[in-house]
Amino acid sequence: MLGKMLKYDLKAMSKTMLPFFLVIIGMTVLNSFFIRFEWMTGIITGSTIIFGLFIALGVTALVMIITQFYHNVLGDEGYLTNTLPVRVDVILFSKLFSAMIWLCLSGVVGIITIFITLATTAGASEFFSATFDVIQAFFLALKEYTSGTLSVLLLVVLGVLAFLVFFANEILHLYCAMACSQLPILSKNRVVGSFIAYFVLNIPLTILMAAIMGGLTCAANLSPWLEQLDVFPLGLLMLTAFLLVGLFLDLLLYLPTRYILKNKLNLE
Hints:
Blueprint: H1 2-36, H2 40-74, H3 78-81, H4 88-122, H5 124-146, H6 149-180, H7 190-221, H8 231-263
Helix pairs in contact: 1-2, 1-4, 2-4, 2-6, 4-5, 4-6, 6-7, 6-8
């Protein structure tokens, strides 16, 4: 059922996000011709438009993530969503995964834009050759320090997982704040209540994050055996610690959101 929900959520956002992606990439290709022919007016205009499109894309993605959750789960459409024969967890994970996928795709579009621009400026063949050499040198150096390809892959996988976990934390922060607007103390004006809940939640989360990271830093400084570790076990330990901290913070936001949606939801 999660797959069906996720397919629906992805499709709902695709109507807005995909045109943005196509326009940005198309404008970047057009700007690359301006760069190739050294037309300064076109370059300045094109670069300004691309910059504005990226700002609009970021704002639109954020608004879409917020409104899709609010309207589909807490608004008028919530009557339909919450009568579906699925658990609250499925609804939450579907919204979370959909938001993360579209935000990651926005990042990919940004990377593609940079690559197209740099390839035009430096020359496509020279640029891609230099890029490949840099990536190859990086992984060879990392492989040498970590004693094997599997070690490199493990570090990369842990790094990506830690990034995604902290990425999910920001989205869950928004969801938890909107869910808190269902509570009686904030339900008189749920939009304002969501803003208040977001900033109120941010205070203990920031303090907790600082305390955890400070504790880990102190533990590292007071542990002389850490200085004796090689690059691979030290990197593995650090990434694992980041991953566990991120999962813990995600859980602190997910559980209250789940509880409110399951037990305190009021769509009136």
